Amino acid sequence: MHNSQRTIRNTVCSLAVFLCVISLGCGKKPVPPAPPPFGGLTASLVFGNTPLPNFAQPPSRQQAIARWLRPVMGRSDGMAQVSAAALQVRPLVEAAAGMPEVQPYLVKLAVLLHMSVPALHHKWVALQTADLLLESGGDSNSLSSAGAAGVAQWLPETAQRAGLKVNVLRSNQLTAQIATLLKSAADAPPAGQKALQQKIAGLQTKRAQCDERYNAADAIAAQTRYLLRLAVRFPALDWLFQAYHGGEGGVLTLLRLYSGGRTSARSLILHGNHGMPLSFEYVYLHCTPHQHAAAFRYLYSRGDDDRHYWWKICAARQAVHLYLQNSTAFASAWQAMLPGQPLLAFWYGPLKHLEFGYEPAVKQALQQGVIQPASCPKAVCASPAGSVLPSGNVKALRSPALGMLSLLYQLYSRAGGKTPLVPGVMTLPAQPDPNAPGAHDNVYNTGLAFDIDWPENMQDRKIMASVLDRVTDLGVAGMIVLSRQGKPRWQIYPNPQYGSALQRQEQ
Length: 507
Fold this sequence. Notes:
By secondary structure, the chain is mostly helical. The radius of gyration is 25 Å and the shape is globular.
């Protein structure tokens, strides 16, 4: 078999394995009937027989990465972003990593990591490209609400300290002009589009000249220098990118708390795991409310994005790698992920096949036992404040979701959670008025999704967040953070691959 054929085969196999891991098994999915306008009462849901994992054991490295592969590459603009990162950003990273002034840092880091310099160079390019995919989607004209600009999302002051020329006043003026033209272009007839796009391109060129954050090559070169200099204090790739994203102080504090402050961060990274290197991955996977408790409390005070950032970089790296191996296979996998759709739709099929519809159908589902009342153990569960939930909320779920709720109660209690959890929205009737509260929460009309409010007690909030990390890293559930009436909450739904085991859990 030729190398090119083997590469294509391996790419397709990798994507197939991933899709099987996070979907309902590898067999052909049955397509349930779709009676108009809703099919929830008659939907034939197929649940897998995979046994529940041992939740006392941490997930594997690949499981922790797989959790983030669909959020990274399965976005509605995921194909365009990964393509830009692979074809436009990566060559600039390759050039930056070859700059003479960064070679001493690469050589020293390669020695510490027991790698050859070419091997580290290749890995470095892959990781920095992945970071830039996460930062900006590979868009050199990106501008965040916080004022971070360009492909590397530099803030003005930080960019200037890194050696980039930034004329903030002139840059803002040009940005305002570009925004006006972009709005005009969106409303212009096709005949006028070309001229407007040329004007926009000209203004973007001028902006990149006065604000080098928008010059992709300069911004990436500055980021490369900045990152590799961090290797002096943080001689490991995962800690280095964690320090870049979440701040050096955050990494230093986490390492100090993990070790009890007995030695320097550099020494811990190199030898802190019984004489072996201590990775961020190991700390994340082994910090619990009962093990390295001080480090656990700090890690879970830093926010979801901080503790998950390294895993997202690894997922982004895999996405770019798969695209470079075979862009056609990548496109097929991207389409199979139902880009822009909720994970619930990817797991179970189109939501219209699952939704019950209006209030009479929800009541009928309850009467027929399609959804069943949710019990609430008083030791770990409390009733929500009445004004928080939308009207019509029914405290009932399909059996796998009930099993998931029961499992979360158990894991939270075992982990030391004290404050009773507050379940929120469960099954919500469809709203005839599209402007009514909850009218667009169609996942709640399926009986498969439910909310849990964040506990008021900070330690219990961290415990519950760690429980949800464990079940989502292991692939048993999906979870996103949302807010209702200013109150943060977790939206949770079970993976049908574990449906039969979760049904038994509920019983």
